[in-house]
Amino acid sequence: MKHTSSPRRILAAGACALAALLLAGCGPSSESSGPGGQGDSGQGKVLLIGFAQVGAESAWRTAETRSIMEEAVKRGLDLNFADAQGKQENQIKAVRLFIAQGVDAIILAPVVETGWEPVLQEAKRAGIPVVLVDRGIKVADESLFATLIASDFVAEGRMAAEWLATKTGGTASIVELQGTPGAAPAIDRKKGFADALTSGMKIIASQSGDFRRTGGKEVMEALLKVHPNLTAVYAHNDDMALGAIQALEEAGKKPGTDVLVVSIDGVKDAFEAMVAGKLNGTVECNPLLGPLALDAVLKAVQGETLPKRTIVPDRLFTMDMAAAELPNRKY
Ligand code: AHR
Hints:
Layout lengths: L7 H11 L4 E2 L23 E6 L5 H16 L3 E6 L4 H14 L3 E4 L8 H9 L4 E4 L13 E5 L1 H16 L3 E7 L5 H12 L5 E8 L4 H14 L5 E4 L2 H13 L9 E6 L2 H8 L5 E4 L5 H12 L7 E4 L3 E3 H7 L6
The structure holds alpha-L-arabinofuranose.
The site of alpha-L-arabinofuranose has 13 residues, from α2 and β10.
């Protein structure tokens, strides 16, 4: 397979991907790294990486995509990018295509936790290492992936609940907006939050908004009709929280004041909402995984054994910290 375009092409294709291309072949970077460079296989061939991304459901996700693409360009690697539009079957097809293309490694941000064995066995048989980013999977045989680089989603959920417990004195009627069913962050953030609730904190409704702003808004609109007396919203990501804030305002409520809102991700829009007094807190989940992911890819291609998990540290930001922090936000 011939790859002839410049590194810039990767970014251009990234934009196409964000416009929902299932599979965009992103060009190579032969001009950026000569033999022996970081992106070189050691045999005078530029490494080709396949990146199977979940989609573009949130600002967090597009920041992650950009980080990995930019890092590939920096290191002179070729990158083929696939946007699965939130569907596991698309992602499995993309991984199979990468295998057929003979990529040197695959970066996979899995949509959901289960159902990966067959395609990962195919990658293993083809001798292609798979680096998981941001979301974990459940497989009996962990040799099917080289490493996982991700946040601790259970800890994130716990942090959100502990903050809410302190803020409310341990009494709250909570609406939970869950992420995509079956996705590791939805499962783990639900668990971490539930584990840290005090006896006076009740989840009165819990529904999926699929990690999307529109999802958060629609679910909140529907739940407000049944639970107008809610006192808090816990959203598994900022985009859903921002959608919920809109719904609360349209229903005549004051998010941030008469309904407390806490979420996860730490995107710029969330900081703006905190500065505006509408979002009370967000747990940062760092999407800028490009450097760590590409380090892992290069090591895996060289046959190095990697730690099975690298945990990316997170922290909570509250409304009172937002104005000072906003100028530093990178995503
Ligand atoms: O896997 C990370 C989660 O996926 C982010 O919190 C969310 O915004 C994204 O869609």
